[in-house]
Structures are given as C-alpha cells and as structure tokens.
Amino acid sequence: MKNITIIAADEGQNLKLSQQIKNQLDQLTHTTTLVDLISLQLPLYTLSLEKEQGIPKQAKELYDQFTNSNGFFIVTPEYNGGIPPVLSNTIAWISRVNENWRASFNEKPAALASYSYTGAANLFIALRIQLAYMGLTVLGRTLSITPTHPLKNPSLLAICKQLTTV
User: Fold this and answer.
1) Fewer CB atoms inside 10 A, N or C side of the chain?
2) What's the topology of domain 3-165?
3) Residues of 31-47 as b/e, b for ≥16 C-beta within 10 angstroms?
C-alpha cells in the first residue's frame, strides 16, 4: 500500500477532479491525502517575508506530508499557458523548509491531471520541467479533461495503477 498525496491547485473543477482521483485511489486500497492549496492561503513567498516571519506553519506541515508521501497526483488548471501561481508559491515555500530543498520530492513518482478549457498541453510541458528538476519522476501519461472531453474511468484507473506501481 502506498501513501499518495493529491495536490489540488484550484477550487473549482480541478478540486472536483481531485476528489474523483482520491476515490479511485481509495478503491485501490491506497492511503490518500487531498491537499487543497487554495484553502491553505499561504502568503506569497518572498525572501524578505521569510526573514521577517519565518516559514509558515502550513508550509512546514505540507513539507512533512510531502516527505512522508510515496508519490503525488498533481491536479491543476492551466493559467495563461503555464503553472498557476498557487502551485508555484507552494513549491517555493516547501523548498525553503529544509536545506535539502529536494528532500520531500526526490525520487518519487508524480502523475498530472488538469481540467482546463485548453487541454493543458502547455501546462504539462512547464510542469514536467519544474517537477523533474525537483527530482520527481513524472509519468508520461496525463489526464486532460475539458468540457468536451470528460473523464473516462478506464483512463483514471490506468494512471492510478501506474502511479502506485512505479
């Protein structure tokens, strides 16, 4: 049994998709935690804020959660052809918790999913580059959901199985 963290970087359709992914992983008898980045309300990372206030409690808790995870399922919309600010900001804070900034990500698998009107091709390219740099092994298969291409259960099952067997 694996401990998978599902990271939702949206409060709308991607949060709903995250819950569907969680349900599928739970059916496969894996331990899952759904992290809603919007509800965390992490402050915008700046070096001066970190020096003044230190690392926020939520970032430290996320660091521990991520470190104890065996893998990640990142569910996010595409923002202007790229990664949404809430996800980039969270990664920035997590990377500051420990001197070994890759510690909670290194050598772990990650699956990507998006509900996006565009199909999220640019998002997946940008996210793959960043996640690989952080040490994650990003699965080749993605879930790209649009209003005209709804989630297909066989695809969801296949990517969940792949994530948990890597």
Assistant:
1) N
2) Rossmann fold (3.40.50)
3) ebebbbbeebebeebee
* pLDDT over threshold 90, residue 54: yes
DSSP for 15-50? Answer: HHHHHHHHHHHHHTT-EEEEEEHHHH-PPPP-HHHH
- pLDDT over threshold 90, residue 166: no
Name which of 147, 112, 124 is nearest 18 in CA terms.
112
Residue 77 sits at the vertex; the CA angle it makes with 71 and 83, to the nearest 5 degrees, is 75
Specify the pLDDT at position 66: 96
Residue carrying the six token digits 């995250």: 18
**Mean pLDDT score of the chain:** 96
Pairing of strands 109-115, 137-145: parallel
pLDDT value at position 101?
A: 84
Rounded (5°) CA angle 165-134-18? 55
